[in-house]
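hey can u check if this looks right to u? its 387 residues, i copy pasted from the old doc so theres a chance i mangled smth
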Amino acid sequence: MNRLERLRAALNQLDSERLLRVRRDLENPCSPHLTLNGKSFTAFCSNDYLGLAGDSRLADALAEGARRWGAGAGASHLVSGHYKVQHALERRLADFVGRERALVFSTGFMANIGIIPALAGRDDAIFADRLNHASLIDGMLLSRAKAHRYPHLDRAALERQLAASTAETKLIVSDSVFSMDGDVAPLRELMALAEQFDAWLLIDDAHGFGVLGPQGRGALAEAGINHWRLIQMGTLSKAAGVSGAFVAGEATVIEWLMQKARSYIFTTGSPPALAQALLASIDIIESGDALRAHLATLIERLTKGLTQKRWKLLASRTPIQPLVVGDNAAALALAAALMREGLWVPAIRPPTVPAGSARLRISLSAAHSLDDVERLVSAINRLEETL
């Protein structure tokens, strides 16, 4: 068997285990109401928590930015690819989350694989929640630091690991909102441990920014914590509805990251027009209490409406509502049955989630209506009886 045949065999194996991923080509802008192959669906798939990705105000700001700043950056940020509008965005983000300074990256994945190796190296130690996002895991591996993974949300286990470590530099790394479970890390407790053991604390607030905290300032603002050893990463492609990510913290820390984060230094800057759209997005987020209140109503309706006789809805107060089915094939069958009814909810399988915990990841958006959620609840409750 040659190398190409081995790849074909491996793909066939993934398919037989119901683990093969597929892409679908959408025919309209991001929205809860999508068209796919000429058929309309109500979608519960995206991380567009405030419904801003298809908002005409952001589209107009993006168009204005393209007319003013062009289509591309032309170079890396530290050569000639950094623009005044991007500087304004970084200032706005820092002020919004209450930190001294912010640095914008092209994507959240690039941010995490840049931040972690810049803060910890071969002789250091990283302490990471076992359910952290893949970007945090990859950043940890790239750092070559000693990796310690503690059981999900297990503060006592983390404390034992920190106490046993003799590393000069320690870095605690955690999601704020976990992307496949929807639960929230004990941020105040993590901050207390970082202070106790003289560690950095990196929080990936990808799914909290824009949704949690006063005026959508994020999970850290909700927890009321701010400290020089705290480093906040947030994405700008989820609740913010555009693209990119930022890291915010004490000015010296951000300067160090700008000097040392390889995924920032050695890549062409993101198009400056995106910054123009993001400035508009942050204004909407800041004044978006009504959007967040509607989202909370939708979450309550879903969680109270699902009967959960065989399947388990995990406890979550966020727009991420995972319905654990268990078996890969059963999760795919449920997703397919919902698709036939015009409801698109993705089936999430290993290795994204642990083996035996395949699930539907229901993602709610402020752009959904109460009728959208009622329809989904009714369909799932009925299918639980018949599948």
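DSSP finds 14 helices and 14 strands in the chain.
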